[in-house]
Amino acid sequence: MNHKAWISLYGLLIRTSIRSRMQYKFNFILASFLAALIQISEFLMVAIVLHKFGAIQGWSMYEIGYLFAVMILSKTLYRTLADEVHHLEKYLVTGDLDQLLTRPMPVLLALMPQNFRIMLGEVLQGGFLLIWSLGGMMAAGQTGWEAIPQSLYIIVTGSIILFSIGLATATLGFWTTRISELQNITEDAAGTAVRYPLTLYPKWMSTLLLTLLPVGFVNYVPSLYILRGELGPWVFAAAAAAAGISLALSLRFWKYGITKYQSAGS
């Protein structure tokens, strides 16, 4: 099958999963509301501190809100399209991955749309923060309308970076089986760290967040140019390069790792 056929098949699997989930509309609405509430409460706590004590390392409330928004929306895009990559452990523990191996399609493509979910709460919360933060900075003359397409661009490249990190972490499960604790570091902790300026952290940590776990290219590095005019427009090429290199390396690692897979029943 060619790439177009694989994409069509992926879309069909997503539509099937959505129809299955929408049979329980109340659960979907409640989960979306709770997700939005959790996300917004975290930023509100930061906003209260900023309102009382001022900027963090020279970053205003709007700028911190922007970092939050881009990270939330990038992660939401990744987890919407490939959430089961993050939950590979359950397939390894139960042996359910065997069922995907028997399908006449790439295993990763079969895995990604499983239990597809629309993360409405995260979209609403991230979208609100993005509109609020950009609106405030535009009103103050800090940024212009060009920040909107630029932000959408880095949300896409950011989602690719986060997916690549998630895929590489999940691939380690072919050797270790249990990966949830590692995901707490590579995905959750790293993603939380770059909701704030990297200048807050020790040099070794900021270097780690720009190299081995390049989450700094999701929001922080591009925001230096978009919001502050620092560095230069080359940051968009750098974000794309980080996304492309991360994706290529993680896919190669996945292809190698899956050859080491041993069924839970073997």
From TrEMBL:
Taxonomic placement: Bacteria, Bacillati, Bacillota, Bacilli, Bacillales
UniProt entry tagged with the keyword Transmembrane: yes
Record keywords: Membrane, Transmembrane, Transmembrane helix
Name the record gives this protein: ABC transporter permease
Pfam families: ABC2_membrane_6
Regions that span the bilayer: 28-50, 56-73, 118-140, 152-175, 208-227, 233-254
Organism field: Paenibacillus lemnae
Signal peptide: none
